Amino acid sequence: LAWQDGPYGTSSEKVFHFSVMILVAAGVGVTPFASILKTLAFQAKNGVMETPLKKVAFFWTCRNEDEFNSFKDIMVGICEDPYLGSIFELNTYLTGEINLKKVAATQLYHQYAGRPDWNRIGRRIGEEFPEDDIGVFLCGPISIAHQLSAMCKKMNPPPASVRNQRVSDAKRQRKFIFYKENFQ
C-alpha cells in the first residue's frame, strides 16, 4: 500500500525547491494551486519542508467574484493562522463587476479590483528578498504568461554585470525563474 500526498507532475513539483515564490492563478487555474497551498501550509506548519519557506505570494484573478468562493476556506484557514499568515500573502483580483458589500464582508486576505501590476509586485518581492531566487508559477492564459515572463526578464540582472568580475568578487544575484502550467 502506497500513499502519495501533494501535487506531483509538471512544474508544480518545482515549488518545493524555492523558499520564495509567486503563484499566479487565473480563473479555474487555481485548482492545482489549491493543492499546492494546502501542501505548503501543512509542511511549513509541521516543519517538514525540503526548503524552508520565507514567502508565498499568491495571486488569483477572476472575472466573477463567485469564483472566489470555491477555495475561500483554504485561504481563510491560512490567513487565520498567525504562523502561516506571516509567510503567506494571499491576493485576489476581480477583473469583472464588483459588489462592494461582498468585498467588505471578507477582509482576511487582500482583495483588489482590476489586474495586478506584475512589475510592481516583482520589484517589491525582489527588494524584500534580494539574495533569494524567486520561483514564479502560473496556471493561466498565455497573455498573463507573456506579462510574467517579461517581468522576470526585467527583474533579473543582465548577464554582462557579472562577466567582468572575478568569480570570488561576484556577489550572488537573485533570479526570477518562470514556470507555466496549462490547466483547462
From TrEMBL:
<dbReference type="InterPro" id="IPR013121">
    <property type="entry name" value="Fe_red_NAD-bd_6"/>
</dbReference>
<feature type="transmembrane region" description="Helical">
    <location>
        <begin position="15"/>
        <end position="37"/>
    </location>
</feature>
<feature type="domain" description="Ferric reductase NAD binding">
    <location>
        <begin position="18"/>
        <end position="152"/>
    </location>
</feature>
<keyword id="KW-0560">Oxidoreductase</keyword>
<dbReference type="InterPro" id="IPR050369">
    <property type="entry name" value="RBOH/FRE"/>
</dbReference>
<keyword id="KW-1133">Transmembrane helix</keyword>
<dbReference type="Pfam" id="PF08030">
    <property type="entry name" value="NAD_binding_6"/>
</dbReference>
<dbReference type="GO" id="GO:0042554">
    <property type="term" value="P:superoxide anion generation"/>
</dbReference>
<dbReference type="GO" id="GO:0006952">
    <property type="term" value="P:defense response"/>
</dbReference>
<dbReference type="GO" id="GO:0016175">
    <property type="term" value="F:superoxide-generating NAD(P)H oxidase activity"/>
</dbReference>
<protein>
    <recommendedName>
        <fullName>Ferric reductase NAD binding domain-containing protein</fullName>
    </recommendedName>
</protein>
<keyword id="KW-0472">Membrane</keyword>
<keyword id="KW-0812">Transmembrane</keyword>
<dbReference type="InterPro" id="IPR039261">
    <property type="entry name" value="FNR_nucleotide-bd"/>
</dbReference>
<dbReference type="GO" id="GO:0043020">
    <property type="term" value="C:NADPH oxidase complex"/>
</dbReference>
